[in-house]
Amino acid sequence: MTYCCGILVRDGLVMIADTRTNAGLDNVSTFRKLHVYSEPGERIMAIASSGNLSLSQTVRSMLTEGIENPETGELETLMNAPTMFQAAQRIGKAVRLVQGIDGKALAEAAIDHDVAFLFGGQVKGGKLRLFMIYSAGNFIECTTDTPYLQIGEHKYGKPVLDRAISFDTDVYDALKIGLISMDSTMRSNLGVGLPIDLMVARRDELTAEVNYRIEPGEPYFQDLREQWSSALRAAHIAIPRPPYGNGR
Amino acid sequence: MTYCCGILVRDGLVMIADTRTNAGLDNVSTFRKLHVYSEPGERIMAIASSGNLSLSQTVRSMLTEGIENPETGELETLMNAPTMFQAAQRIGKAVRLVQGIDGKALAEAAIDHDVAFLFGGQVKGGKLRLFMIYSAGNFIECTTDTPYLQIGEHKYGKPVLDRAISFDTDVYDALKIGLISMDSTMRSNLGVGLPIDLMVARRDELTAEVNYRIEPGEPYFQDLREQWSSALRAAHIAIPRPPYGNGR
Prior knowledge:
The structure is a homodimer. Chain A is α+β, with helices and mostly antiparallel strands.
């Protein structure tokens, strides 16, 4: 399992991903799912993946080596994509190529071959953007109405995002809320776990302001988890008991 | 969609169910999913259902009319079940009968024929118990380690239950937390909605202390939703910003 979320606010972009992968409950490992591609001052891109690991890794490898454009002969990579939109299209194209080769074989073996990506960043001269690429290679873009996207085990961590995030949220508040969302997911799904990788990119700075891994026991995240737990406890204690029956 | 939860604490039992059903997004209706069977002083039972409505209604009708026991000739209902365990077995039996008839036809038409039940209560001389009956008619029982069970859209409302409910929680606090869990689910899934039906039965009282419907606009629930929202806002505002990068 996996949980990744991307949050795009006025100030910038946050991407967060856990690192737990499992092939069955008896085969759990740690794999990085958030990858940052950066050429400071020129472009900052981050890609987070969920689903079948062999497929997502192959997609990334193809986008690093480059996919030959039959018309121009050019090897198209993420790093030479002229815009974020074209980069997202390249991810979609790679997904379709991989699904056509490996996905087909996996389907025949009745193995899950879903894969999904969050892709965010900015290319010089363009806007800071965030996309979600689906298993069929199509994609959607994050807008100001709902300034976040999630892949993987998204339900447990969605309520806090729905309540707390708006486009005007400060980028580090967005990171904090994203980490609370990750905490809620980790508590309810053992398939999502530490370490957590995160990236923060401010709009128009074209570089990662933070590219960081939270390891188990890291003081800030441990504190956040404890404070959030006690705040929730306090919050429901503060609400009066229901006035029905003898509870009043 | 549906969300129901049952909570079994030392003091008693809480059952909560929404009422929204839908056949596609363009066909939304209100149907009661929580049904209370009571003979005060003798037995209190409540059943909540999720999944295919035609199947869950048929199961309940069979258990009201009675399923003939081929050995004794007795018409077995919920109301004449000698124990909660045997009543749960009767629900399982009815589920299997219905799956054998309607479920098969639905499967051939590629229509979802899942169904699930929460079944809680107490029969005089027995214990207060809570069961979850699956689509195949098998069932599990709630224990003190995790004193709640959920059916339907369970993920959004699970984190608050995991954090706040223990076997020693007061029964009206359990109701309150169950309503917060319902609120979280309603916010994230449009297929779950008001009115909400609820029942509270204290251990050994063999009657429903509360059997109530929360209609839209009901002041306590509206208050709970607003207080919980502002408490969550306050809670995440109180947590310091992450110390990574320039956020500190």
